[in-house]
């Protein structure tokens, strides 16, 4: 096996165009809008296998044509949440011999139910259009969480154990029996320890879990991970379409987070990663705010915040830090030096506000050179002088004041 060739990738304009395999290679072809249109796998001694992809005007994947001849269709709501996937062409059924009809009802689609940003149910749909709610899977979450903590199907409750990133690692029955376990490599390829393979469908411990990195859901028919606003390719370690937030997501619009062992991108809208450009320093005691006001909650969309923090009220998080439920070291506080005043200015105003309100500080921060700071963050610094206080307000015009946070040193 040629290990170096296996791991090699060729890129063009930040996107993978060829990836080496142990006994062949994969070619990636993109349309004029930079979206993956075709993937061809070449294995020595085998015919090429080709996947084709169709997109709508919202840059959402709506069709996938697989090498076996299956065709899958995907639908979404106005918030980018996937509502269904349907096998519109079933190659196995087309190729079935008339003398051997398929006796078992075939699942040809899945419907998904959401509560905010949480997918709370997935229900199979048979070929005759019947939705099998009795065979559906309900997922239970902690408030504001991205990854489920429990799974309920056919009267059976299972508990989900995740790692520090919110990636499911094990699923247990109420009696503590492991019914599923797996792990991901650095860029998300799944290695199963224990799954449903070889078990009967009526096995009480039969479970499935398609959740991967936080916010990702694997589609076995394509091998892609649905990642809310985009699809992630675990083989190349990149997304298959450009970042919807453009260069606010970084210089490479196809890249996943810089360090998957520390960061997540649950919505496919990865934001600025200070570790790419900065260096770890002691937490500066005279750190200033770079804005006059902030919204009451931590961001969800486009944020790399820890799942314990994302989307939650700042003051609630501050209280959790104060009582010891959240460590202040959970925060990645980055900062730069304001060239006009020479003062350190944070690039994480909401995180700094929560830390100051709690009275507990992290040991380290990340210094980012001013010339490496994204333009939209530089604009905040240029528009106002560094401040030792910041207002939490409901509205952007400063009205609806919740609280003023002031530095205590």
Structure description:
Pfam families: RHS_repeat, TEN_YD-shell. Keywords: Repeat. With 409 residues, the protein is mainly β. It has two domains: 3-246, no CATH class; 271-406, no CATH class. The chain is 9% helix and 35% strand. The protein has five helices and 27 strands. The protein has helices at 3-7, 91-94, 314-323, 349-358, 375-383, and strands spanning 9-12, 15-21, 24-30, 36-43, 49-55, 61-65, 71-76, 82-89, 107-115, 118-126, 137-140, 150-153, 156-162, 168-173, 178-184, 190-194, 217-219, 224-227, 230-233, 238-239, 279-282, 293-294, 334-337, 344-346, 364-367, 389-393, 401-406. The strands form four sheets. It has a 16-stranded antiparallel sheet with strand order 1-2-3-4-5-6-7-8-9-10-11-12-13-14-15-16. Strands 17-18-19-20 form a four-stranded antiparallel sheet, with no helix packed on it. The protein has a four-stranded mixed sheet with strand order 21-25-23-24, with no helix packed on it. 31% of the residues are buried. The model is unreliable at 1-6 (pLDDT under 50).
In short:
Residues 153-243 form the Teneurin-like YD-shell domain. This protein is mainly beta and 409 residues long.
How far is it from the N-terminal to the C-terminal residue, by CA? 60 Å
Number of domains: 2
Alpha-beta classification: mainly beta
The coarse silhouette is globular
Strand content: 35-45%
> Order of strands across the widest beta sheet?
1-2-3-4-5-6-7-8-9-10-11-12-13-14-15-16
Main pleated-sheet profile: 16 strands, antiparallel
Contiguous runs where pLDDT drops below 50 for at least 5 residues: 1-6
Query: What percent of the residues sit in helical stretches (DSSP H or I)?
Result: under 10%
Number of strands: 27
